[in-house]
Write a structure and sequence with these properties.
5 helices; about 200 residues; single chain; alpha/beta
């Protein structure tokens, strides 16, 4: 079976960021997992979304629509963000502003944060507290914090062996959980009442 559609969002605004490296690792693992269809990777640095609310060009509007179509078709979302000054990136926040009209509603989301040193916890708390209200995304109780990211998930194999082994196994555990939630939430979405009278959360 390979019918779970997953979208992986690389949330850094910097090209070739360490968070993109982690997002690509996740994309590659999902691609090899027989439970998942070919995953979609959205790189917010390579193809940024226009700033929400600006009078965007036709090309920018087409980009918003294309990403929105991918998100709408997804059964699950993996959101990878670096920690910048104790926050998730502006690109990640902008993503949720664009897609808070049902595209993410009642779909499981896995938060993955990245830190060059020992940080990474603050964006987890921030996303759990502020990004779900109108998007209605349902974050897994599990998340992954990739600390000292320069020392792990390197294709060259130049990794800290202890951290690499632990984070690799923990990532597999998170993705196994995501698959279970994605399957279960299909039944939840099918059973939900009509929410058209309440387009926004309270």
């Amino acid at each position: 079976m390979s019918d779970i559609n997953a979208v992986v969002v690389a949330g850094s605004q910097n090209p070739r960021a360490q968070s993109l490296k982690v997002a690509e690792e996740i994309r590659d693992r999902l691609a090899k997992d027989r439970r998942f269809a070919a995953p979609t990777l959205i790189d917010l640095a390579a193809e940024p979304l226009p700033f929400f609310g600006d009078g965007s060009s036709a090309d920018a509007a087409a980009r918003v629509q294309s990403v929105g179509d991918s998100v709408m078709a997804a059964d699950a979302l993996v959101l990878v963000t670096p920690e910048w000054h104790g926050m998730a990136t502006a690109a990640v926040k902008n993503f949720f502003l664009h897609y808070s009209s049902g595209q993410l509603a009642h779909k499981p989301g896995l938060i993955v944060t990245v830190s060059a040193s020992t940080g990474g916890a603050y964006p987890v708390a921030e996303l759990r507290s502020s990004s779900y209200k109108n998007s209605r995304i349902c974050y897994l109780p599990e998340h992954l914090i990739v600390r000292s990211v320069g020392q792990v998930f390197n294709a060259s194999g130049d990794n800290d062996p202890v951290s690499q082994e632990y984070l690799s196994k923990r990532l597999d555990f998170c993705l196994d959980s995501l698959a279970a939630y994605a399957i279960g939430f299909r039944a939840i979405r099918a059973a939900l009442p009509d929410a058209s009278a309440y387009p926004n959360g309270m």
